[in-house]
Amino acid sequence: MLLIYSYLGNKVASLVIFTSCLLIGVAVGDLKGAGSPVQEDDEHSQGRPLSLNEVVFVIQSQKNSFHVKRAEKCRTELLKQAVDLRQKPPAVLLLHSLSDNEGDWSILPLLPYFSASFGKNSSWMVFLEEETNVKVGRLLQMLERFDRGKEWFLGRPLYDRESTIIHHYAFADNPSVFKYPDFAAAWALSLPLVNRLARKVRDEPLKSDFTIDLKHEIALYIWAEGAGPRLTAAPELCTELEGSPRAKQCATTLSTYLPQCGEPVKKEDIFVAVKTCKKFHEERVPVVKRTWEKHAALLEYYSDHTDHSIPTIDLGVPNTERGHCGKTFAILERFLSDAVAHTEWLLIVDDDTLISLPRLQALLGCYRPGEPLCLGERYGYGLGQGGYSYITGGGGMLFSRAAVQRLLGSGCKCYSNDAPDDMVLGMCLNALGLPVTHSPLFHQARPEDYSPDFLAHQIPISFHKHWNIDPIAVFNKWLVDDTEDTDSDRPHRNAREEL
């Protein structure tokens, strides 16, 4: 039996966020002032042509078989381009295969390894996602503009239009002052910067707290309250669709904004569990019914009170103000019982989650139902010192039947009904050696909590929270496709593909 001995809890998380706000707010003045002392000069080439074997590519891959296949295809294409350019092949690393450390997806723990392995004979490290296409020749031309002997942090800049909880309310006075990279466009570090950061990681243990938005947190770590370089915009790093007119001058592009792998999963193969409670029966449940419920073939509402008008099911677990671990595990057990139809997929959402089930069906066509899969927006806790990953609950947690069977078969349990269900599940998955699979299309927060440029190259699957928004208008704008019957003003999926 897996035993969960400790958990820092929401109070500590709130303290971490408050402290981060305070420290970052004090540092804003440094960011508004002069540039970093390690980057005083403008772009300047050293004159010597950059060879491809001086570039190390790191594909931010994942352990699930679908993602491994995509990453290997990306690596093959990079090596093929090296042959076409008659260049010595670069090192191409798959992030998920570098070690068994769960925290490696957060990249910072790997910096000492990168420095030791490539710090003397390489000039650049380029990080890209599995779906990022690279035009290698154009990328080399871009990198040659920068003095490889200096510290550089290059990328496609994103910024917040207003301070947001997912970034710990950083730079509350002017959130747009801080830029962080869009990972989908690729981002690059010069080796002098990698080497210095590696020494810092070795000498100063990474903080053991929450990893929520990795791209923002890496930028904060590199900037180091003004002691390190700020992100430098590289216009050739793009998120345009490959083949679009705007992509002609790009060194990087995207293949698609929503991965599709043939036929979507049938809606009858997805069982949907909505967590609610009596006090939200009249406020939140009607929103679900007016938006996405119609796309579910099999859906049940789980509450602390039986209401036949909805209807809801009382699982015998009292409502808690936070955590809801007892309720979630009761749902997992019901999913494997004869009380509900047998399906290969289980989706657990909150009553204030907005989700596109047709888009989820399309995405699930990429995954094998017989493989243990836990899919959603990945967060981390204590990754700098081991720790574990988890799917944050508000954006939706998707499980294959095989994953649920492994979880419950292990004896994993809640240590209390109000324990945080998503984090307890993450601890259990980590103990079982089952990976958490991340999709940036699931969102724990509202659309306005993300950079507009980040959302512009997505076809999102979910958003969360009704706070200070019209949830039905948000659903119609962001989660309804052209083929659906609505007159609301929204960006059309086909139009988004052509952006």
TrEMBL record:
The keyword Metal-binding does not apply. Residues 120-202, 264-469 form the Fringe-like glycosyltransferase domain. SUPFAM superfamilies: Nucleotide-diphospho-sugar transferases (SSF53448). GO terms for molecular function: glycosyltransferase activity. Its main location: membrane. It is a single-pass membrane protein; Single-pass type II membrane protein. Keywords: Glycosyltransferase, Membrane, Signal-anchor, Transferase, Transmembrane, Transmembrane helix. The keyword Heme does not apply. One of its GO terms (cellular component) is membrane. Belongs to the glycosyltransferase 31 family. This is Fringe-like glycosyltransferase domain-containing protein. It comes from Conger conger (Conger eel).
